[in-house]
Amino acid sequence: MTEPGANASPPPKAELLRTEHLTRHFKIGGALSRRTLHAVDDVSFAISEREIVALAGESGSGKSTIARVLARIYKPTSGEAYFEGKPLSGIRSRRDALRYSGLVPMVFQDPFASINPVFRIQHGMLRCLKLHRPELPASQRLAEAARVFEVVGLNPDMLGRFPYELSGGQRQRVGFAQALAMRPKLILADEPVSMLDVSIRIGLLNLMAKLRDEEGVSILYITHDIASARYVADRLIVMYAGQIAETGPIDDVLTHPRHPYTQLLLSAVPDPRAPLSVAAETDRGEPPKVVDPAPGCRFRWRCPLAIDTCEQVTPQLAELRPGHDAACHVAQTSAEEVKAFL
Amino acid sequence: MLEVSGLSVDYVLDRGNVRAVDDVSFTVGRGEFLGIVGESGCGKSTLLFAVAQLLSPPAVVAGGSVLFQGTNLVGLTDDQLSAVRWRDMSVVMQSAMNALNPVTSIGAQFKDAMRAHGKYSAEEITARSAEVLRMVGIDPVHLRSFSHQLSGGMRQRAMIAMALLFTPDLVIMDEPTSALDVVAQRSLMVQIKELQQAFGFAVIFVTHDMSLISHFSDRLMVMYAGQVDELGVTRQIFDKPLHPYTQGLLEAFPSIHGPRVPLKGIPGNPPSLASPPSGCRFHPRCPSAFDRCPAVAPDLYPVGETLVRCLLHENGSPSR
């Protein structure tokens, strides 16, 4: 685990994945409708090697859409994502697609829906190995599956079991084992612990940290739970209404949140060890409008600090502290830190 | 006001009965907020359904009683129950997405509820419906809206408004915030507390997220494998948890304040209720288990104001 403050001056790490102005829109309504849902709008970020980046935001903020674009389930409407310097749109052959999905696998939210219930656990593991690691002889696949199971903290005996025999936490470990079997560089983990019991979650979070520290895997950890993000992640990206509101080293963002939305999010986290914060009680937590949005800050309806500029100009990310950017007109123009909700 | 004693619920299955709720007793006073926490499969939702007498086969009440304002609800007929339900005791279900009817307007559903539980004129129904919606902070124009036109938070608020139609004395809530994100969740909790203080109804609030109710509930009941593990004043349990399971649950939450410390969570998985472990049901996962734990089933022992089911506290000593 990284010590607080240690990532103020991060050692230079090789960049693994980068998105530039990534945008994904969806047409909604009937065939004649011209309305467009802006699920992800102009999102640029990078993920380095051996790094856990948390992507946080409320439901509908575009977190999962980003993961799906990066997993090549959706094509971006505009913008581009680059993996190891090569654009994803350049992947055309089946061989390249397989190679990419092996290097950047996905772990899904619902461990009860993401494993085929009619096959033994080993079925999915062996198929992963057969598809993505053709150099491995068939006779060694089972041994390799057993090795990976031990890495994720599962008894290799479980390979012969059926999914219904496993608990939620064990199934989610199977999800990580399948991803790990492909020797990934970056795992896209979409809310991997949100369906699990509280007492089980920490074990999975510790597993994610272990994969980073011992296996050298980067993880894009999509979550709405800021406290768990703080526990494992190195950097935090806060999404709001399809755009990045704030991004930076996680401890810096959490101790010096500059965007009012980040402040609201933090004030709402229940913490039995802290006294009850009375802030944000008037906020109803309504999701923003992202259907055919007009220019301007998308948080302005909920923001107590909104000024005239917020009505007309969409704020862009600007560096306010070392490596720590926020897209907020008020935070960018005021010298001292402005608190909207804390 | 509500007195549950020795309540047990069995699921009657072909391969034998599974006891999902085992000998649970607790009371709820007027205007009190009782939080019930536990992991999935610990019997907390079954317990709620038993209290509200909403169990359907294969679940049956195997023993005990639910005294609500002096009437034992166990064994009442549906007609007798309908006089109590909704008017005096109402239930807010877990998922408002599914609990609201998608093909009729919110107002029509309010009307159905009022018609089913009393005789009211159309004006009275409209007035009362608008009033309860305003109480939860929704504009009454939404009486004509359908559930898909409302956000998750608003749907959940509409459900609470519906539960308050008859100013009940007890509102039972089964994870009403679990589908919401943190900001909406916090806002809903604050609202529930405000309504409770304004109208003086009691709340039984079931959740798996202990941190959520830390600032809102008066008393807390921790359930594990169908049994009560710890029952006491919320603040005391958070400050000084006695049962190793409660301690583990509290330590399983990463905090956003203070230093980052490695956490362990609780090893293992919750037990199957079909074959619970011998002795103390928590002993296979318990870091403090000793030789008697697998053999002796602990009782609920009083330690100060708290009741705790752990042999470490057999003599009432608060030692760990």
Helix content of chain B: 25-40%
Main sheet summary of chain A: 8 strands, mixed
- What is the helix tally of chain A? 11
State the low-pLDDT regions of chain B, or none.
Answer: none
Order of helices and strands of chain A: EEEHEEHEHHHEHEHEEHHHEEH
Estimated share of beta-strand residues of chain B: 15-25%
Numbering strands along the chain, what is their spatial order in the largest sheet of chain B?
Answer: 6-7-8-3-9-10-12-11
| Bulk shape of chain B | globular
pLDDT averaged residue by residue of chain A: 86
Number of strands of chain A: 12
- Work out the radius of gyration of chain B: 21 Å
Distance between the termini of chain A: 27 Å
User: By helix and strand content of chain A, what is the structural category?
Assistant: alpha/beta
The geometry of chain A reads as globular
Q: Based on the structure, what is the oligomeric state of the protein chains?
A: heterodimer
Largest two-chain interface: A-B, 45 and 45 residues
Mean pLDDT of chain B: 85
Q: If you compute it from the alpha carbons, what radius of gyration of chain A comes out, rounded to the nearest whole angstrom?
A: 21 Å
Strands of chain B, total number: 12
Could you tell me how far the N terminus lies from the C terminus of chain B, measured between alpha carbons in angstroms?
A: 34 Å
